[in-house]
């Protein structure tokens, strides 16, 4: 028997110095950093033709609580990966052009969908030293608009009201929201600190203990600990897009 030449695959653990991390991450978790907020990113360079991802998803696995990872290759979306619950190697981007590539693995779903822990990658090729940090730093603070809620689907609204179908993780991709799009256009590093339905004074359910100012110093907005130290990421530009939910129907009633 015979076969065409085959390029071997190599595994790289999450603690490899070739990985660069962007966003609020809990580095105290065993095996690898854990992300909750959307747009948490693992960035690296490789001489490779294939990338598979290894994540541990903490999501429940239903329509609202399933995590997705967007794989960007040289700034262009090459794959969108649905993560099963638990740690698994999942097929990512294949058949890349031979040569060097910049890879970004982005948590495209928000904290409501659940946490993800990065455990490493498998490369059809080799991991290179990390890329230089982008010189400009942006942070976008907001609610569902900033998180990209429902931006992968179009629903025609009836004349009498706006349809409310609830949160579906499949329909959200933070990489297509205005913050990351702005960052890519201006070659800036972007952190998005956002959660759908939250407000400044009150959230869309009328509660006041779930507002974004109350959650801002958290690494995971749904957990009190660990706290996030804002000095770890000091943006050059801070954009705050909040207040819509303070005046929602639910809050008024």
Overview of the molecule:
The chain has 253 residues and is mostly beta strands. The protein is built from four helices and 13 strands. It has helices spanning 144-147, 178-186, 212-215, 249-252, and strands at 10-13, 20-22, 25-26, 34-35, 41-57, 68-73, 76-82, 86-93, 100-107, 116-127, 136-142, 188-194, 237-241. The strands form two sheets. Strands 1, 2, 3, 4, 5, 6, 7, 8, 9 and 10 form a ten-stranded antiparallel sheet that branches. Strands 12-11-13 form a three-stranded parallel sheet.
Count of distinct strands? 13
Catalogue the unreliable spans: none
Task: Output the number of helix runs.
Answer: 4
- Hey, roughly how much beta strand do the residues contain? 25-35%
The N- and C-terminal alpha carbons lie at a distance of 73 Å
Helix content: under 10%
Keyphrases for this structure?
253 residues; mainly beta; ten-stranded antiparallel β-sheet; three-stranded parallel β-sheet; 13 strands; 35% strand
Structure summary:
The protein has 253 residues and is mainly β. Helices cover 8% and strands 35% of the residues.
Q: What is this structure's SSE topology?
A:
Elements: E1 10-13, E2 20-22, E3 25-26, E4 34-35, E5 41-57, E6 68-73, E7 76-82, E8 86-93, E9 100-107, E10 116-127, E11 136-142, H1 144-147, H2 178-186, E12 188-194, H3 212-215, E13 237-241, H4 249-252
Parallel strand pairs: 11-12, 11-13
Antiparallel strand pairs: 1-10, 2-5, 3-4, 4-10, 5-8, 5-9, 5-10, 6-7, 6-9
